[in-house]
Amino acid sequence: MTVRFGRVAKASVLLGASLMIVASGAAQADENKLTIFAAASLKNALEAVNTACEADVGEKAVISFAGSSALAKQIEQGAPADIFISADLDWMAYLSEKNMTKKDTETRLLGNSIVLIAPANSTASVDLKAGVDLAAIVGDGKLAMANTDAVPAGKYGKAALQSLGVWAGVEGKVAQAENVRAALALVSTGEAPFGIVYATDAAADKKVKVLATFGADTHPPIVYPVAETAEAKDADAPKFLKCLQTDKARTLFEEQGFTVLTPPVSN
Questions:
Q1: What gap in Å lies between CA 145 and CA 156, rounded to an integer?
Q2: pLDDT value at position 31?
Q3: What does each C-alpha distance from 246 to 103, 150, 262, 266, 267 come to in angstroms?
Q4: 243 burial level (CB within 10 Å; 0-12, 13-18, 19+)
Q5: Strand segments (E) across the chain
Q6: Which residues are CB-neighbours of 149 under 8 A, at least 6 positions away?
Q7: Apex 248 CA angle, 246 and 252, nearest 5
């Protein structure tokens, strides 16, 4: 269910749409270049890794960022992506089961956590324990989340709220966005007083602050898998996959708050 309400709903739709336009437009315009479809939450880290890996790979990749669900559907419909990086295992499995990935390249690359955020000037205080009256804390405001039925960050957030026994109370207060960066923007701009995003998203925006971190036991493990697509055409795709697992990439991912799940490989 997508909540519709005034400026917040409009902002959510516009922000999500803008990222989707970037995703599809970039892919269509650069079919002859190494093209990566990546979860929106990877934007800061992956752009830095892309620059660092350019010399090893031989070219700078074109990266399209959006919700993992939207990107997986685009790949299914024939979008020219060479590499897919999802924010959860489900959307990688979705493509893998349709033989749209090169299964021997599928790798569990990164980990993350989810947090409750508020604007940086907020005085709110929250203890994320079972039964917390989050609905009362949100009050007449909205809780910004990525789409809770399809986008990984939204699914993780919903699972955490259900685990704490508070989902039923806040479900009607949720402002659903097309992806996690759009949800972050709703809080950053003051459109929503609270939001649930990845810890790495919160760290990337000085206009928000973390109120609390959801326990790892309240939601499925957050795993970012990566794979070369079955229709990959760029010969540099394997080089980029390798570079993602080097020490220099590890350092850049860790600087953004990600946990690197793979052992390092030599350049």
A1: 10
A2: 62
A3: 21, 31, 9, 6, 6
A4: buried
A5: 35-39, 62-66, 83-85, 107-111, 114-119, 143-146, 174-177, 194-198, 208-213, 223-228, 259-260
A6: 155
A7: 115
CB 245 within 8 A of CB 95: no
Please name each of the domains of the chain with its CATH number.
6-10+113-218 (3.40.190.10), 31-111+223-260 (3.40.190.10)
141/130 Cα distance (integer angstroms): 21
Angle subtended by helix axes 43-57 and 247-255, to nearest 10: 160
Residue 118 backbone phi and psi in degrees, to 5: -145, 165
Q: Which residues contact 134 (CB under 8 A, 6 or more apart)?
A: 126, 143, 161, 164, 166, 169, 170
pLDDT in tens, 130-161: 999 999 999 999 999 999 999 999 999 999 99
Please name which of 59, 48, 55, 56 lies closest in space to residue 82, comparing C-alpha atoms: 59
What order of strands is seen across the sheet that includes strand 223-228? Answer: 62-66, 35-39, 83-85, 223-228, 107-111, 259-260
Q: Judge whether residue 25 has pLDDT over 90.
A: no
Residues in the chain: 267
For the chain, state the CA radius of gyration: 18
Give pLDDT tens digits for 105-135: 999 999 999 999 999 999 999 999 999 999 9
User: Whole-angstrom Cα distance, residue 252 to residue 149?
Assistant: 30
- Three-state DSSP at 59 gives coil
pLDDT tens-place string over residues 66-106: 999 999 999 999 999 999 999 999 999 999 999 999 999 99
8 Å CB contact between 212 and 127: yes
